[in-house]
Design brief:
Jelly Rolls; 33 strands; 40% strand
Length: 620
């Protein structure tokens, strides 16, 4: 082969190699270019997704909502567009590529066309979302702290107005998110509203934290306010009292509120008197309830020389009550310790509780196997929650439109259903109470965390309950599963308010949240009513007077005032005296309870316990 021929062949080989190499190179460059385009498209999509999400959010939030989106725009942007219901980014490539997002609402504004990071402003106004660099019409721009157009105000710009210029006495005027004046911080005063306002010395029961002691007197009986709110009424303040006497039940007078003789008495359950084993043992204080039997304990008024006294019958009062049993009954009286009286006790004065008791089984004598005892307790409590249904809707005098948000200490508002109304008819100094008819219900919850001995107190009045109809008071730890505390049926409907109390201690272990439910199930709603009023839940403490006298097999764990292993007829204790100063730990409401208990009565056996002349004397 000649050299010329070899050289020619080499050139041909090189040419073929270059052709192949160039083909591969061009192909790779094309692939690289495609990858770059795909990357820029992805960046554009991510940017538009961020803007789209932010725009949807402010549109859902409504008028005035605004935010910013931080985005990274790609290279090769030819143009951007925000128009009607679409935002678009158009890119340069082998051909023009449009990346866009559609909305269900109108958008307006502009987007940048330069590569890199950008903050995009997004704001909702009316039915339009403004995106990017845009001038929003001033007439629609509420929220820029400048009052414009039809706006009353805007943010801090109140246009020189104040509560006083708007006709109120004082307070702080503000502006709402809709650029209208907000008057919730303004106040109007008037004598008689129960609040000591500027210019008033006091107002009704609001004595501005004053009492007779603080104003230079030694005795308060109590301090009150003049009707024109200009000064205090000092008529009941005294300079040199020898003692304070609180007549809880005075011989020759009617029983004080809340006791009522008009249709028999209703006992209360300020606490229960447990047995040695800790069982309830029948000492719940409810009318006509004892140890699982009914009609074995009754409460009546007794006339002795034209005077009234408390009379408790226990035993086989009604034929067929029980052949043999153990029964109890007790009655509660509420009284108040004022700040002045408490101050004297705190300074060392005695607080002497005195009363007369007597025991009688002369008609149906008890035998040697029987026992009888008298117990007396003093208790008080810290209020946890209260509702008296006296709240009324603002601006209306319609008694059937009371709101269900009143009281204090509750977790939530009342949840009501069926036939319910807050109507007139309160016997405890107020105007209104809850009334259930037909199939009606009302429930509310409170938190009992940290309370070891909570007591529920409520006043109930049942009217015209017929056979087959019922009304209930129930509690629940979850608002779903309820335990019935009390049920009213035909025969429980004397149409008189009675005070009921329940110790809730054993229910607080279920859950700190406790639901209280009142409901009626009346098939014939005509005239059937279930009234509820003055609901009080408080942390109760109970102190038993006397000493541990009971040494029998039936002995319980608390003290007695009197105890008899073999009771005899016509026993009387005159002027029994106890100093209860150690139990008066603060001003406020206290409870005196008096009761009797029988063990092992036989068929037809029963006895009477009497209490009278009950008073509390506090030395000065």
């Amino acid at each position: 082969m000649s050299k010329a021929q070899a050289s020619t062949e080499m050139l041909i080989v090189l040419a073929i190699f270059l052709i192949v190499f160039l083909g591969i190179f061009v192909s790779n460059q094309q692939n690289i270019s495609n990858i770059n385009i795909d990357f820029e498209i992805t960046k554009a999509k991510i940017a538009l997704d961020s803007i789209e999400n932010a725009a949807n959010l402010v549109y859902q939030q409504g008028e005035g909502a605004k935010t910013k989106a931080y985005v990274n725009f790609p290279r090769n942007i030819k143009s951007t567009l925000v128009n009607n219901q679409t935002i678009t980014i158009q890119l340069y490539a082998q051909s023009e590529i449009d990346i866009y997002r559609n909305f269900d609402f109108t958008v307006n504004g502009t987007l940048p066309e330069s590569q890199g990071n950008h903050w995009i402003s997004i704001q909702s106004r009316g039915s339009t979302v403004f995106i990017g660099n845009v001038t929003i019409p001033a007439a629609h721009f509420c929220g820029n702290n400048i009052q414009e157009g039809p706006e009353e105000c805007d943010g801090i710009d109140l246009v020189g107005e104040s509560c006083i210029s708007k006709g109120y006495d004082n307070g702080t005027l503000s502006c709402s998110g809709l650029c209208a004046y907000k008057y919730s911080g303004c106040n109007s005063y008037s004598c008689g509203n129960g609040i000591t306002d500027p210019g008033e010395v006091c107002d009704n029961a609001d004595l501005n934290d004053q009492f007779c002691f603080s104003l230079g007197y030694l005795y308060s009986g109590p301090l009150s306010c003049l009707s024109n709110c200009s000064n205090y009424n000092f008529d009941n303040c005294k300079s040199e009292p020898d003692y304070w006497e609180i007549n809880l039940w005075e011989l020759g007078t009617d029983i004080p509120h809340p006791l009522d003789f008009t249709s028999g008495l209703n006992s209360t359950a300020n606490t229960f008197w447990p047995s040695a084993s800790g069982a309830d043992d029948g000492w719940d204080w409810h009318d006509n309830v004892y140890s699982g039997y009914s009609n074995c304990t009754t409460f009546n008024s007794a006339s002795v020389n034209n005077s009234q006294r408390l009379e408790i019958f226990i035993g086989d009062v009604n034929d067929g009550c029980a052949d043999v049993g153990t029964g109890s009954g007790a009655y509660g009286i509420q009284f108040n310790i004022s700040q002045d009286v408490y101050s004297s006790i705190a300074n060392g004065s005695a607080a002497n509780l005195s009363f007369i008791w007597s025991f009688n089984d002369s008609i149906n004598s008890l035998d040697d196997a029987d026992e009888a005892s008298i117990k007396v307790t003093i208790g008080n409590g810290t209020i946890i929650a209260y509702e008296d249904f006296e709240s009324r809707e603002f601006g209306t005098s319609n008694i059937d439109t009371r709101n269900f948000q009143g009281g204090f200490g509750w977790l939530y508002d009342w949840s009501v259903a069926g036939d319910y109304v807050v109507a007139g008819g309160d016997e405890n100094g107020g105007l209104y109470s809850l009334r259930l008819q037909g199939f009606g219900s009302a429930e509310r919850a409170l938190n009992l965390s940290g309370y070891s001995n909570p007591v529920l107190q409520v006043r109930i009045r049942a009217q015209s309950i017929e056979v087959g109809d019922i009304a209930n008071l129930s509690i629940s730890s979850d608002g779903i599963n309820y335990i019935t505390l009390e049920q009213w049926i035909d025969g429980d409907d004397d149409n008189i308010y009675h005070l009921y109390e329940y110790n809730l201690a054993k229910y607080t272990t279920l859950s700190p949240e406790l639901w209280i439910l009142f409901n009626s199930e009346f098939n014939d709603g005509a005239g059937d009513n279930f009234f509820v009023d003055d609901i009080l839940i408080q942390e109760g403490t109970v102190n038993y007077l006397g000493s541990a006298m009971d040494t029998s097999d039936f002995a319980d764990i608390t003290n007695e005032v009197m105890w008899w292993d073999n009771p005899v007829d016509n026993l009387t204790g005159n002027d029994v005296l106890y100093n209860i100063a150690n139990y008066i730990t603060a001003p406020g409401q206290y409870y005196l309870t008096l009761g009797g208990k029988l063990h092992q009565w036989g068929n037809g056996e029963w006895a009477e316990f009497y209490f009278d002349n009950i008073s509390l004397m506090v030395d000065n």
